[in-house]
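Bumping with the actual sequence this time:
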Amino acid sequence: MRRLFTFFVLIGFLTASAAWAQSGMPLGKRLEQLSQEIGAHELRNPPRDNVDIERAGKRALRERGQSRLYGLWRVLYAYKSNQIPGRFEAWATQAREAARRDHDPALAALADLEATAYRHETHGYRAFTDADWRRFMEQSGPDIRRMAGIERVRHLGQVGRWAQAARLAADLTTDLEKRGRIAQPLLAELHQVHSYTLSDIGDKEGALDHMAQAARLDERDAFYVRKIERIYDIAYTAAELGELDAAERFAALHHHMTTTDGDKDLRTWDRFLCARIAARRETPARVLACLEPAAADLAHPVGRLQVLMLAQRALAHAQLGQAAAARADLERLKAVPEALAPRDPHAEALIDAYIDQAEGRGAEAFRKLDAWRKTDSVEAERAHQRSVAEMSSALDSELRAKRDESRRLTEEVRLSRSLARASVVIAVLLGILVAGGVAWAVHQRRASRRLKKAQQRAEAASQAKSSFLAVMSHELRTPLNGMLGLAQALRAGPVTPEQREQVDLIMDSGDTLLVLLNDILDLSKIEAGKLEIAPTVGDIVQTCARLVGGYQPTAREKGVDLAFKLESSPPGLLMFDGVRVRQCLTNLVSNALKFTTHGKVQVSLACYPMDASPQDGGKMRVRLRVSDTGIGMNDATVAKLFSPFTQADASTTRNFGGTGLGLNITRRLVEMMRGEISVESEEGRGSIFTIEMMVDPAEPSDIPVWEDDANEDEGGGFVALQGRRVLVVDDHPVNRRVIRLFLEPFACELVEAENGQQALDALAAQPMDIVLMDVNMPVMDGLEATRRLRRDPRFARLPVIALTADVMSAQIKTCLEAGCDAHVAKPIDLRNLLSAMDRCLARGAARELAAGFGAL
């Protein structure tokens, strides 16, 4: 039954495909139907920066034989046809390297073929020699002959040998249809190229037929830029046929897709198409409007397309009476080198005649226009006489192909009649299918309801998990704040060596708990898709060097040599997420030190530019490598290394501790930063972890003006804190006690409040210099208290620092939007708190000083 159903679907598809060829349908209606079909398959989220081509190329490089050959042909042909030089050269180089490495002569021939074809299309169709055609069409194997055949059809059409082009296209079509799916992209391109020949010999409707077949062949898996070119060709041909309304519909779709893609070269083709349709409508003002965005490129044309656009603009200027602009464009046209584009004296004569008319030399203009018309007539007659035989032969080849297609349609009609004679059986089978379809629909509806309920339960569970993590984060951080805060205060006071050792043990245990809590929260945010990468301007060399320096005491204590090495020239300022880079490097360095009992750990950094091409935009490739001489790993351990909650074996957890989350989080963060992480390891010899990622260079407008931190010296003196009146708002007495111990050395006067309402009352009763505001409190929380405080003009500039155990980005953003000047996470780090207070107070003092000068 399933086979019969599939058979009916196939018959329906063949019937729909034949509908385009119905001779009774008007051309305008056929174009409208085609525009609706193509528009219906337009991608809603199209790929940017040709990522679909790049992905296909990487996939092809992993293949071998014909799969690699045909896959790389698609990539090279797409970049060649759309004239994207940087990416074309990069992939041609990769193809040659693969051919040399694997001794693949067909792949080497493909790279040479497409490189020659690229020069051929961009230099006036003069790059191929007879020796080239013999090599590719006769000496390089059947696959290369098929690929070269498409280039040969295009070349023959361009030089006016239409009969040969049509015969070769017919033979290639039969051959490619036999090859099946692997050759389907070649067949689509052959239809496209053959349509150019038919258009040249005057069979515009036949050309549109072939363009429609090309569009239907690859509408599902063609590259986005190829879809754009299909639409361009249909729009251009419709304009040549005089179907200008249809041409503008396709041009509007082309404009939308090129704008979405963002490629500069595609936008140039879009402007040329716009100007061409405007010229066909005889609206020179519209021609100028279409070409206005390309003014900078037309000042110094470097491609054949830009030369054609310059000629369009010159003629439009002249037709509008703008003689000076037209003459300037005409001089640029005459200065174009012959190697770039051949001179067109006929077009130049027409522009010159219109210039004379614009400058008031009517008689001279009339004479030149009359001479132009006579020359045009003579040239047209010569071209007609020269090409009658070619056109007749070409049309004969096309008619022969159409007769073959007609025979296929006749067979389909015969099959349809046979099916009609079995109508009773078909009706019974259709009835069974309908009954089965109804039963299936009922089953699917029930399954859909069950799936929807399961989805709702899953979303509720996910929400509950997020809420649970937020609550647990807050609840765990509150006691940790008390424990670590009191330990920091004890360590800062006078203690005996034995007591200091005990305090250090408390600090280490608390830090271990904090690392575990942060890992679990990061993993949950990554899995929920809520963790974002936020690149900022920074010095990656200093970032890595400072982090490695922070681990030197640990390395010295273990007797391990820890070193940092820059293996390239300094890259300057870059755009990267410093927090996440430090987190990844911290995980790798701490692991290296953990599993290395003697020897050395080395961290090396190298930064070098990507391939110099317009598509790379000056990106830098950053390589971070952490090598150690530790215990190493076998292949089985390496294979499962980056899985969550996974360590080498049970003895690893017993001997070294840890949860197995760090490397999994590191891998995911690196992938989010457009990079990848790899590992090389040998049991008993050590391991090498390598991170490679792409970063953007810092633009001058992105480089921040750093604040002056001169008030904060290395010894920990914070001048702005001395003798300040501080309002501490927190419902937990231990937290208030910790802050009091932190601020005692600075002779600060502390006022305490247990909730937001008490804080507002305290501020109304006496002036304060700064407020340390907890967020989650009874009666009135810290956010509401801050909002009310900011609405009072007396406290508009009062520094407020949020102290909260909520560390998720959305919660931090909420604190800042409520009016807080800064955020310090619990458990509170002494240095972080003092730095934040010092900055806020120093900025407040600077603002007051500026306001005083303004008043003067």
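The tokens above came from a reply further down the thread. The chain has a mean pLDDT of 77.
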